[in-house]
Structure of Glycosyltransferase 2-like domain-containing protein:
Amino acid sequence: MPHLPRFSIVTPSYNQAAFIGETIESVISQAGEFEIEYFVMDGGSSDGSIEVIKKYADLVSAEKWPIQCRGISIKWCSQKDKGQSDAINQGLRQATGDIVSYINSDDLYCPGAFERIAKEFSDRPEADFIYGDGDVIDEVGNLQWEWLSRPYNHSLMTSYHFLWNDFTNYIMQQATFWRKSVINKIGYFDESFHYAMDVEYWVRAGDAGLKLIHRPYKVGKFRLIKGTKSLSSPTVFWEDYLEIFRRYRGSQSLSIFFAYYYYNLAKEVDFDIQLTLEEGNRVFRQWKLLPDREKKIIEQQASRGGDLACLLLANELYKKQLNDLASATFKKGLSKRPLSVMHIYSVSYILKKILGIRISRLLDDNITQNLIDWYKWKRFQYRYHQRKL
């Protein structure tokens, strides 16, 4: 008799009564020749979530749910946890299945997802991870856009170009599954991460030489809700991203990452450079236990990144016709490193000043931006382009 695969799925949840029922149904309605072991880890909700979870758990245990696979078990608890990563790990530590994943309490699996994933793992014994595509939906389930994942590329996932992929990253978490044996090789999710724990896990797997295979069909749905942590700030993921870049690129490579971190922070605080640097200091909290030598390197890289950010911001401010502030910001970027006048960001600003606002805007809009857009489409977003052809 062929082996019957078992899925171990974890849902971390906190005060998601409005959505968790639909999430649970997307798991326990999966049909195919497999078993499902489902862990719902509630963080002590007070909005009625517990009643929703219990309702579905009782339906399954009483055999009143129309099961379409070879068996389903639901285990759940409601207690305070240390955050999303901790809740996921609590579930994964109980897992006994062959294939594992997690789905957040407002996201969904597509019908037929498990059947396709089970077949992929059966057909591809070399695969450690299988991941697909999906949809981004709003609060009521309306399609916002398609999320088209890309084949894993370790050099891209560990470079600032990764952040050029706008909101979606290269691997859709809601469409990703991995063998339980992966945990024996690279461990559980890092609980020090609060936003990009999934990205760190994929990069850790790639760094360890594990095989991440993309399949071009829809597996999951990501619900984009106003007020959630994913949308709380354009820079909310940056602390985690900087740590990923430190781990997998090295502390001596961080200046360009700090430059874009400070640049994006400045845009949030109306280009107040002093406030930007003060706000940016919070990222150093996560490195307080590093050796003094490495902390010194990171501080130097941050200082260099801050200067580069000033050069970038000078260009942005000039385009907004804030000429005095642009000039002051440009000078600040050069004050400690005058040779940075040869940097492309400096050259760009100087050319804008020489050409004037009208011509420089014309060049930016019709040449520079078109080149950047072409490069992004060609290098990072090519699957969206291919879909339109």
Remarks:
- The CA atoms of residues 204 and 247 lie 9 Å apart.
